[in-house]
Each structure stands twice: as structure tokens, then as C-alpha cells.
């Protein structure tokens, strides 16, 4: 019994050390700074105010589908924001697009997926998350048109939000700032010698510091630091504990256990993975080691189709979140939303499996 316990603890420790050594410094640290900058320098109100039923569809669904990259939220954070949108007069289509895409297109999760599970899967996750978010929102809007009719009546009585003031700094500064941060991330994760990467990272860091000193107020830089720290303290401890626990679980349930269920790109496998993702609760980023370690994607046990299906369904919905959503928009709409997530995630995974051949 003691030998089993020691073996599982060692497995958990080895798994955690492996993830820390390979992915934290070059991947997660820059990603946290980018996510913090997005939260600090891009105003949420500029995104959320375009979701009304009368808003232009291309604008409403387009913004809602990429909102997660701007808001950098996880599934637990998206629910109160979704509730606020729903109550303040958002159309049901853009609202559910936002609900699905917020955690699914999270910049931290996309970067981490590409780094740990491979660039192809990370790219497929980002692309299919945007497509599925829009499709699910359009279907919800078509099925529940009466909701938008009622919402338009409420919107007529709502006070208008005044527009914000103009920017004092040149318009190129913020885009250049983000380009440099992304450049640091790309250089850090590139498969190249450190003698090549270090000068590039150093130059980009100096450029970032120059912009911060000469074009940003001290309060803005402080807010960036606090936003980065807030994301880190919320997510990183859970990731550490979860990765360690998954390593221990792998000692008792090796990835080969799941081979018969997720080892092929069949529609049955992707559907099962989608259902599992919809039921399980996985904190932000933890879905990556779950798929890589527990289900064995990195060791070749889990096929790409089921992996993508689980990535598309897991972060956006879970049994606890569905219970909360049902209190916001009712059991009927919630049930339809859950079914749509399961079906479209499974189909996306199956399509990805076909592409892989």
C-alpha cells in the first residue's frame, strides 16, 4: 500500500516537473503578461455594447466569437458576464456566442494548447471555436426568436451608455505594444538555440519597456501588473495542483485505459469525448494536461478528433455551469444549448480527424 502511494506521488511529481520545465518560462509567463495587457488596455465596454438584437449581425457575432481573446476569461468568470448581457438586452444569438467563445478562445488556453499538444491542434481549436460559436449563436437565435422580440421592447426603455473619451497617445502604440509581447512569446517558444532567441527577446523587451515608459501612464502600467497577477493567482495554482493530481491518476489509470474509447477518429469517439467534456468541470488550462497526460494524446493513445472535440466542449460547458445557465435563461434554452455544443463539437472533431487522415 505504501509502495503504491509513493509510486503515485512520484508519478505526480514527475508529471508536474515535466510541465514546469517545458512550458512555464517560455509559454505561460509571456501568455499571462499578454492576457493581463488585454484585460488592462482593451475596454470590455467597447466589446459588450454591440450585442443587442438590432446590432448588425456581422459585427455582433464577429465580436462575440473572438471576445475570449479580449476578455481573457475562464468558464467560471464568463457566467456572471453572460448573465449581465442577458439581463441588459443582448440578443440571444450574440449572448450564447459570447458564452461559448469566451472560455473556448481564451488566449492563454490557445497558446498553451499549441505549445503542449502541438501547433496543429492549437490552430484547429482556435478556428473551430470561432466557427462553432457563431453557428451555435445563429441556431439559438433562429430557434428562440420570441426572446429577441421581448428584448427589443426592453431595450427601448434602457438608457444609452455614453461614449468614452478619446485616446491621448498615438493609435499605433497599443498595437505595437501587443506585437512586441506576442513577439516575445513566439521567440521564447521557437525551436531555436538560445544564442539566437535571447538577443531577439532582449530587443523586444527593450522596445516594450520604451513604450511603457514614454506612452503609458503609471496607473495603466500598475493596472497591467495587477491584471496579470490576478490571472496568475487564479489560474496557476489550480494548474499546478491539477497537473500533479493528473500525474497521480495516470499511475492508477494509465492512458492505455482510454485507448478503446478515444483511440480512433470515429464519430462515436468524438461524440463520447464531447459528452465527457460537457459533463466534466475543468478549470482553465487544466484541459490541456487532462488530454495530454490522462487521456494520452501526447503519447499517441488518444486520437486527434476526440482530443479536439473535448477541447471544444470542455472549457465552455460543464455540469455545474449548465445548472447556473439554466437559472439565467431557463431549462429549455439551456438544454438546447448543451445539445448544440455536444453535437457541433463532435462533428468538428470528426472533421478534424478526417483532415488528419
Automatic annotation (TrEMBL):
<dbReference type="InterPro" id="IPR005524">
    <property type="entry name" value="DUF318"/>
</dbReference>
<feature type="transmembrane region" description="Helical">
    <location>
        <begin position="63"/>
        <end position="86"/>
    </location>
</feature>
<keyword id="KW-1133">Transmembrane helix</keyword>
<feature type="transmembrane region" description="Helical">
    <location>
        <begin position="306"/>
        <end position="325"/>
    </location>
</feature>
<feature type="transmembrane region" description="Helical">
    <location>
        <begin position="172"/>
        <end position="192"/>
    </location>
</feature>
<feature type="transmembrane region" description="Helical">
    <location>
        <begin position="266"/>
        <end position="286"/>
    </location>
</feature>
<dbReference type="GO" id="GO:0005886">
    <property type="term" value="C:plasma membrane"/>
</dbReference>
<feature type="transmembrane region" description="Helical">
    <location>
        <begin position="20"/>
        <end position="42"/>
    </location>
</feature>
<feature type="transmembrane region" description="Helical">
    <location>
        <begin position="126"/>
        <end position="144"/>
    </location>
</feature>
<keyword id="KW-0472">Membrane</keyword>
<comment type="similarity">
    <text>Belongs to the UPF0718 family.</text>
</comment>
<protein>
    <recommendedName>
        <fullName>Permease</fullName>
    </recommendedName>
</protein>
<dbReference type="Pfam" id="PF03773">
    <property type="entry name" value="ArsP_1"/>
</dbReference>
<keyword id="KW-1003">Cell membrane</keyword>
<feature type="transmembrane region" description="Helical">
    <location>
        <begin position="199"/>
        <end position="216"/>
    </location>
</feature>
<feature type="transmembrane region" description="Helical">
    <location>
        <begin position="337"/>
        <end position="355"/>
    </location>
</feature>
<feature type="transmembrane region" description="Helical">
    <location>
        <begin position="92"/>
        <end position="114"/>
    </location>
</feature>
<keyword id="KW-0812">Transmembrane</keyword>
<feature type="transmembrane region" description="Helical">
    <location>
        <begin position="236"/>
        <end position="254"/>
    </location>
</feature>
Amino acid at each position: 500500500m505504501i509502495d503504491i502511494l509513493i509510486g503515485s506521488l512520484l508519478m505526480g511529481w514527475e508529471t508536474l516537473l515535466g510541465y514546469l520545465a517545458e512550458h512555464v518560462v517560455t509559454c505561460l509567463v509571456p501568455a499571462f503578461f499578454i492576457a493581463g495587457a488585454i484585460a488592462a488596455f482593451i475596454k470590455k465596454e467597447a466589446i459588450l455594447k454591440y450585442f443587442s438584437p438590432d446590432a448588425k449581425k456581422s459585427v455582433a457575432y464577429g465580436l462575440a466569437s473572438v471576445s475570449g481573446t479580449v476578455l481573457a476569461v475562464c468558464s467560471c468568470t464568463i457566467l456572471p458576464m453572460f448573465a449581465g448581457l442577458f439581463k441588459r438586452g443582448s440578443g440571444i444569438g450574440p449572448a450564447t456566442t459570447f458564452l461559448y467563445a469566451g472560455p473556448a478562445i481564451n488566449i492563454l488556453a490557445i497558446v498553451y494548447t499549441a505549445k503542449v499538444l502541438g501547433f496543429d491542434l492549437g490552430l484547429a481549436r482556435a478556428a473551430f471555436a470561432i466557427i462553432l460559436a457563431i453557428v451555435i449563436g445563429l441556431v439559438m437565435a433562429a430557434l428562440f426568436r420570441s426572446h429577441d422580440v421581448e428584448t427589443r421592447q426592453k431595450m427601448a426603455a434602457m438608457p444609452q451608455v455614453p461614449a468614452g473619451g478619446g485616446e491621448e497617445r498615438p493609435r499605433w502604440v497599443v498595437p505595437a505594444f501587443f506585437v512586441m509581447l506576442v513577439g516575445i512569446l513566439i521567440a521564447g517558444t521557437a525551436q531555436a538555440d538560445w544564442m539566437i532567441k535571447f538577443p531577439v527577446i532582449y530587443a523586444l523587451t527593450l522596445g516594450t519597456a520604451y513604450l511603457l515608459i514614454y506612452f503609458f501612464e503609471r496607473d495603466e502600467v500598475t493596472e497591467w501588473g495587477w491584471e496579470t497577477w490576478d490571472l496568475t493567482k487564479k489560474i496557476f495554482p489550480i494548474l499546478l495542483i491539477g497537473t500533479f493530481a493528473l500525474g497521480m491518476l495516470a499511475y492508477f489509470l494509465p492512458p492505455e485505459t482510454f485507448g478503446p474509447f478515444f483511440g480512433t477518429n470515429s464519430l462515436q469517439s468524438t461524440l463520447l469525448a464531447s459528452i465527457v467534456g460537457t459533463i466534466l468541470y475543468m478549470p482553465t488550462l487544466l484541459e490541456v494536461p487532462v488530454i495530454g497526460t490522462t487521456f494520452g494524446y501526447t503519447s499517441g493513445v488518444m486520437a486527434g478528433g476526440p482530443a479536439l472535440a473535448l477541447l471544444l466542449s470542455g472549457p465552455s460547458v460543464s455540469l455545474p455551469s449548465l445548472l447556473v445557465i439554466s437559472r439565467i435563461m431557463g431549462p429549455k434554452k439551456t438544454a438546447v444549448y448543451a445539445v448544440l455544443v455536444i453535437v457541433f463539437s463532435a462533428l468538428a472533431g470528426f472533421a478534424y480527424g478526417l483532415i488528419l487522415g
